[in-house]
Design brief:
Leucine-rich Repeat Variant; 219 residues; 12% strand; 6 strands; two-stranded antiparallel sheet; elongated; alpha+beta; four-stranded antiparallel β-sheet
């Protein structure tokens, strides 16, 4: 859906009544006329309160139908289809405008996720921990990809992966458990352990932490 919405951002729609560029908005769940959907999750709508259609619509609807309302010009994405859509107040759709900047940030994150996913299959052969760390520390990434990355951690056997993972807050308990198991295996492979007091890496057989000087119990 994200790629489709981003494609809409390149579309330029102009209101024929006031020549103002239309705003991309989330569509209402129901069509006000027949109760059916609009056929699109998004609509281009004129939100210009000075638009003649909107300004003159109040008097027209009051005289024609006897209630309060007006019209805003609306067009469907990827279509020449357009409507004069009835609205009940001047605030209609003003809170439904798509956050363009947020969409673009989401797109950047998604593209980075796709790149990391494409590098997963060769990361062990290339000894490249970066795509694994990227996916594991992106809580918005696809959970299946993140679990695949966790499975590769121990095989990569890179102690450089421990610090960024320990500093990350996981929102999925099962994924966090898998990461902890992999870290435990990496430490064992390197004959290391984490100091329980300062969290620095030390030799597994150390009796004193060389970083904080605390006495350690044998594991």
């Amino acid at each position: 859906m994200l790629e489709r919405v981003l494609a809409y951002l390149d579309e330029k729609h102009v209101c024929p009544h006031c020549k103002t560029e239309l705003t991309l908005c989330n569509a209402p769940p129901m069509h006000v006329g027949d109760g059916l959907g609009w056929g699109s999750e998004f609509l281009f709508i004129c939100l210009n309160d000075e638009c003649p259609l909107f300004v003159n619509g109040w008097e027209f609807i009051e005289n024609q139908y006897g209630h309060v309302g007006s019209y805003r010009h609306m067009e469907l994405p990827d279509s020449q289809e357009n409507y004069s859509m009835m609205v009940g107040s001047k605030f209609a759709f003003t809170g439904c405008a798509v956050d363009i900047d947020a969409l673009r940030r989401q797109s950047v994150r998604y593209q980075a996720e796709k790149m990391a996913a494409g590098q997963l299959c060769g990361c062990v052969a290339n000894k490249d921990i970066r795509p694994v760390i990227h996916l594991l520390t992106d809580n918005a990434a696809d959970i299946t990809l993140r679990r695949q990355a966790a499975e590769l951690l121990a095989e990569l056997n890179d102690i450089a992966s421990i610090e960024p993972l320990r500093n990350h807050t996981f929102t999925d308990p099962s994924l966090e458990h898998a990461v902890n198991l992999a870290i435990r295996q990496i430490l064992a492979n390197h004959f290391l352990r984490e100091c329980p007091y300062c969290a620095e890496l030390i030799k597994a057989r150390a009796q004193l932490c060389k970083h904080c000087g605390k006495e350690l119990s044998a594991e």
